[in-house]
Design a protein that fits this description.
65% of the residues lie in helices and 0% in strands. It is mainly alpha-helical and 285 residues long. Helix 2 packs across helix 4 and helix 6 runs antiparallel to helix 7. The longest helix is centred in the last third of the chain and has 30 residues. The N terminus is likely disordered.
Amino acid sequence: MRSSNPVFSRRGFSRDNGYAGFNTAPQAGYAQGNPYAQNPYANNPYAQQDLQQGAPPQAPTTTGRMTMDDVVMRSGMTLGTVAVGAILAWALLPISATSYGLAVGSAIIAFVLAMIQSFKRTPVPALILGYAAFEGVFLGVISEMYNSRWSGAPFQAVLGTLAVSAATLLVYKAGWIRVTARYARIGMAIAIAFVLVMAVNLLLVAFGVADNGGLRSFGPLGALVGVIAILLGAFFLTLDFKQIEDGIAYGAPKNEAWLAAFGLTMTLVWIYVEMLRLVAIFSRD
């Protein structure tokens, strides 16, 4: 099964290298593009040794395979690019109609780059870092706008994003949430329904049918929608964690760490934006 994120289109780890996204069991995900589909441990001395000792299969120690260090390094580079872009945009672009236009343009470019990467079979670091840079410009401008009206809102949103991420990781590692195929299907159905409802709401607001943002208003209803969106972000994080965990266990190629960084960055941006709106709602007089 393919892992997903807020745009519902990022590919999972490469099938051609024997890994097809997160799985519910070691045998799952090997059916396509893997010469060992019937036995994923065949001809793998590391897995055979683990099985003989009664231990779960571990990632191969050979070079060229993704490790947690690779994921951390690429994620740090991607998120660092977002942060640098946001800081520069905040410092160099004063609040104005022009900066707002640049923010919208940057968001569109970031979306296009994300879509291009999503439909590629292999990760392209330039596309991923380009996405991060333009996303950073967008976040920097809107964060400055929110801060001008609700002082400290971006800082609180960053803290909220870190808290949600840490809590999700804790719950995932503790085994309180099991990322199974059924869990993913139900979560994805809810996420798709949410996005469709938000798209309809946007159209209603654009044509003047719904006032004050409709479901995305700065009132109690908007707060409820924001909480749902953040919970969906936490759901996407669990999918990302599972994909990374399985990718390392099944020996995904080293360059696939860029996909892990890409997915984590998109999810964290989703959570931050929703957290920013939620902080603003609760900061209103």
